[in-house]
Amino acid sequence: MKKRDILDSIDSIYEYHSQQLEEVMLLVLEGERVQNPTPVDKEQCLCGEWIYKDAAKIKKLIGIQFYDNMKMMHEHWHHEYESIYALYYKDKQSRLKRLFSKSKKITKAEREEALRHYMQMKSTTKDLLLALTTSKRRVLALSERCFESVS
Fold first, then answer.
1. I need a surface site. Which of 35, 51, 57, 98 has the fewest CB within 10 A?
2. Pseudo-torsion of CA 26, 126, 13, 88, nearest 10°?
3. How far apart are CA 18 and CA 128, in angstroms?
4. What distance in Å separates the CA atoms of residue 85 and residue 89, rounded to the nearest whole number?
5. The whole model's pTM is what?
6. Count of structural domains within the chain
7. Predicted pLDDT of residue 123
8. DSSP 3-state assignment of 29?
């Protein structure tokens, strides 16, 4: 694991979660469904893959407490997203009805619920992006020798 690889990963994750929040915003505020929605499973999105795949290495580089906090924020983000996803994408209609229906209709109450979850996601995203920025600063401050012992 090289310093540049970690920095590139952090940059990619930052952009990815910013973009995902934007797509959720379009869904909740405009009703625009996304072709490839964010994975609901926290381990299958770009950030989750990074957090869980290289957990031991990342903990060693940025610190266990900081890592655990970032992981918790990411889990919270996906918990809120799962609630929104259920409202817009999990269709309880019969198969035949789904074939002739373009999208699931949501009620005003469901839309308000989605908006509440979105506002939580927005706040969590802000915190997560700040944690990623701080992680990047921590990684930048490390010497190349630190990465040799982590590989």
1. 35
2. -30
3. 10
4. 5
5. 0.83
6. 1
7. 97
8. helix
